[in-house]
């Protein structure tokens, strides 16, 4: 089963990268194909040189400690330099938080908005905290949010480093931090006070824990602590970002696959830990949402019931195609649809969505649906900018800072900057290297338990974005996991590296014969 999943994900990665290079679908940030090809070649040479490097254990340990700090610091500096006055939901929610901080009540329309999008109700509570902290420090709440986003970037770099080291990839662990910095930490999204950066670490926690050679199928305190950590972190992430439901689904599927290939005792321990993590995840998500809404709403105000957007509404939206600004958009935000259901209850929305889904499926037919979903997949995964500056009127928004450092950052990280196009081509080349080289590695690597969860997580977010809501922005929180999966596959190719065993396992003949010491045996 693990081998099949690895091969499927490998094929999808290679196809997405190859199409984005040879016959890309137009995305929000246009690329120069020849410049991207040159960038891909350049990054390939860098990867080849790094592969030949043999960093010492001391260097890897120091990088594991200080690398994430440097990554977070760079993300903070670039995030502040990039910061601008956002124009869409991020601005709407932050403005509401600022209004209520001055004692004002929310209007019925604002309460209805938060009821329709519960994740933004949690963001509203978080924004109120950022406003309070910013007032104490004498800075804008956006600055506080950028700092929080930067900490999240640093956590992702640390978790990715640990996961790759766990499978024996010392040099690859350093590469993981560097690639996460380039694609994730230096992205304009770090400067936006929204929920695209904060939950990312939750997707990496299971990858780190399940790759650890210390997991032996014994019900020990570290194993239980790991299950608790996964459950709580994922629950909070889900409260912020609905795409994070992919994580508990992947954890559950991983536990079932492992249980089927394990002894009864190990299967029991695995299923028990997975059940504990999933239970805590649901409780944590529900509690986080209720607490955020309760603490954030001023006075005795409350959100109206039965107004939340339903899963079927997102499925209906995901089947719609729009042509805006010369770009075919697959399953993205649909303004007319949102306005049509503005005053509907959740029950009425479901009825509306069922009708729309039936009509759209009948119009497309089986072949049309297959073509549509294929194009949606290629369009979403072929965008290495992850829809940066593409929401609302952000592309024409004013920058918040004008100092010398900010102007330098904006010269390559703002759409009006002189080098922004070059930056996009370089990062697109890096993203295509992750997809193509990572996919190639997954096609050739040895199936290992450590790769099972990351593979299922990547397949899960692929399915989620196609099924519920399109735009490469929804992939962004999973970029660190995608990078980690690609590099773990690279390390586990034949003849490249071996999983790092524990001391006890290193004395075992089974490990010397190359048998995976993880839970899957």
Could you characterize what this model shows?
The chain has 21 helices and two strands. It is mainly α and 521 residues long. A two-stranded antiparallel sheet has the order 1-2. Helix 1 (2-22) packs across helix 18 and helix 6 (118-137) packs across helix 7. The longest helix has 36 residues, at 346-381.
Itemize the secondary structure elements and their pairings.
Elements: H1 2-22, H2 33-52, H3 57-82, H4 89-101, H5 108-116, H6 118-137, H7 141-166, H8 170-185, H9 200-210, H10 221-240, H11 246-260, H12 264-296, H13 311-318, E1 321-324, E2 327-330, H14 335-340, H15 346-381, H16 404-413, H17 420-444, H18 449-467, H19 479-491, H20 503-506, H21 509-512
Antiparallel strand pairs: 1-2
Helix pairs in contact: 1-15, 1-17, 1-18, 2-17, 3-7, 3-8, 3-16, 4-6, 6-7, 6-12, 7-8, 7-9, 7-19, 8-19, 9-10, 9-18, 9-19, 10-12, 11-12, 11-18, 13-15, 16-17, 17-19, 18-19
């Amino acid at each position: 089963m693990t081998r099949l999943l690895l091969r499927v994900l490998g094929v999808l990665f290679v196809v997405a990268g190859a199409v984005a290079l040879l016959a890309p679908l137009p995305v929000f940030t246009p690329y120069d194909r020849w410049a991207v090809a040159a960038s891909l070649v350049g990054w390939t040479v860098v990867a080849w040189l790094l592969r030949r490097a043999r960093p010492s254990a001391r260097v890897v340990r120091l990088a594991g400690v200080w690398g994430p700090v440097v990554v977070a610091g760079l993300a903070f500096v670039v995030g502040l330099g990039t910061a601008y006055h956002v124009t869409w939901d991020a601005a709407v929610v932050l403005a509401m938080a600022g209004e209520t901080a001055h004692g004002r009540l929310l209007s019925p329309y604002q309460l209805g908005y938060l009821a329709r999008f519960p994740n933004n109700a949690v963001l509203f509570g978080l924004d109120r905290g950022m406003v309070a902290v910013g007032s104490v420090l004498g800075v804008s709440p956006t600055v506080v949010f950028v700092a929080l986003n930067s900490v999240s970037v640093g956590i992702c770099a640390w978790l990715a480093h640990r996961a790759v080291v766990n499978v024996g990839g010392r040099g690859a662990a350093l590469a993981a931090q560097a690639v996460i910095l380039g694609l994730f930490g230096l992205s304009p999204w770090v400067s936006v006070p929204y929920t695209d950066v904060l939950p990312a670490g939750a997707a990496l926690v299971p990858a780190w824990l399940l790759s650890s050679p210390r997991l032996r199928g014994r019900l020990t305190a570290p194993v239980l602590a790991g299950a608790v950590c996964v459950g709580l972190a994922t629950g909070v992430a889900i409260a912020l970002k609905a795409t994070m439901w992919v994580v508990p689904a992947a954890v559950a599927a991983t536990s079932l696959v492992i249980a089927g290939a394990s002894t009864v005792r190990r299967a029991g321990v695995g299923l028990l830990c997975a059940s504990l993590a999933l239970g805590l995840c649901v409780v944590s998500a529900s509690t986080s949402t209720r607490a955020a809404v309760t603490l954030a709403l001023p006075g005795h105000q409350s959100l109206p019931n039965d107004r939340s957007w339903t899963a079927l509404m997102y499925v209906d939206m995901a089947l719609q195609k729009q042509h805006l600004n010369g770009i075919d958009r697959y399953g993205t935000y649909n303004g007319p649809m949102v306005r049509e259901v503005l005053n509907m209850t959740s029950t009425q929305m479901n009825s509306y969505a069922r009708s729309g889904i039936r009509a759209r499926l009948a119009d497309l037919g089986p072949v049309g649906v297959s073509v549509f979903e294929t194009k949606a997949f290629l369009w979403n995964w072929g965008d290495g900018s992850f829809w940066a500056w593409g929401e609302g009127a952000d592309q024409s928004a004013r920058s918040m800072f004008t100092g010398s450092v900010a102007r330098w950052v904006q010269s390559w990280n703002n759409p009006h900057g002189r080098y922004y196009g070059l930056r996009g081509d370089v990062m697109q080349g890096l993203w295509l290297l992750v997809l193509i080289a990572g996919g190639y590695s997954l096609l050739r690597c040895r199936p290992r338990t450590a790769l099972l969860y990351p593979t299922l997580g990547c397949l899960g977010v692929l399915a989620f974005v196609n099924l519920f809501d399109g735009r490469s922005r929804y992939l962004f929180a999973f970029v660190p996991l995608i990078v980690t999966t690609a590099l773990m596959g690279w390390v586990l190719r034949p003849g490249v590296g071996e999983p790092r065993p524990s001391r006890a396992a290193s004395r075992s003949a089974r490990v010397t014969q190359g048998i995976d010491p993880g839970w899957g045996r």
